[in-house]
C-alpha cells in the first residue's frame, strides 16, 4: 500500500532507505529546520537502532514514510505520524524534504495533504499537531496554508547557533479539516 499524491507518494521505510536518511540527517541545513539541530551527527548504527522497530512494523507510536517523487521514482525525504499513547485523540505530523532542489515545488503541500487524509479519514483522529521552531518560515507557511492554527509558543525552548529560539505548536481539528475540504 502506498499513499499517492499527484507528484509524490508516501511508502513504507525500508532498510535500504537508511543510507539516504543517513545523508539527510547529517545535513546541518536540513536538521536545523527539521529538528532545530544543526549539529546533528548520527551514525548508521544509531539510525538502524532508531528505525529498527518501524522497519519491522513493530513501532506502535510512530509511522515512518519515505517521500518518493513519482516521475523519477527517487526518494526525496521522509515523513511521520506520531501517536501519543493508547488514548490519543491527536497525532503529530512531520516531514522533511531532504533533497533541497525539491523545495518549493508544492511537494510539501502534497505530503501534508496525504498525512492529514491518513490521520482524519483513515485513523479517525480528532486533531493533528505540527511543531516547529519559530524561525522556520517554510514550515510555518506550509502548516498555515494547510489549515493549522497557532496554539502556543514555547519561549526559548531550544538552543542552537548561539541563541535560544521559540517553538511554535500548531493544530488543526477534524471539523476545520472537513470545512476546508468542503471549500468553506
Ligand atoms: C518545510 C518544507 C517541508 C516545505 O516543503 P515545500 O515542498 O518546500 O513546500 P511547498 O512548495 O508545498 O510550499 C508550501 C507553501 O509554503 C510556502 N513556503 C515554502 N517554503 C517557504 C519559505 N522558505 N519561506 C516562505 N514561504 C515558504 C510556499 O510559498 C507555499 O505557499 P503558497 O502555495 O501559498 O505559495 C521544506 O522546506 C523542508 O523539507 N524543509 C526542511 C525540513 C523542515 O523544515 N521540515 C518541517 C519541520 S516542522
Describe this structure in words.
- With 184 residues, this protein is α+β, with helices and mostly antiparallel strands.
- The chain has one domain: Aminopeptidase.
- The chain is built from 6 helices and 8 strands, in the order ββαααβββαβαββα.
- The model has no long low-confidence stretch (mean pLDDT 97).
- The protein starts with a strand and ends with a helix.
- The chain has helices spanning 18-24, 28-35, 44-55, 107-122, 137-145, 174-181; strands at 3-4, 8-12, 62-69, 75-83, 90-97, 127-133, 149-160, 163-173.
- A hairpin with a 6-residue loop joins β4 and β5.
- The structure holds coenzyme A.
- Coenzyme A is lined by residues 30, 33-34, 94-97, 103-109, 132, 136-139, 141-142, 145.
- Residues 30, 33-34, 94-97, 103-109, 132, 136-139, 141-142, 145 line the site of coenzyme A.
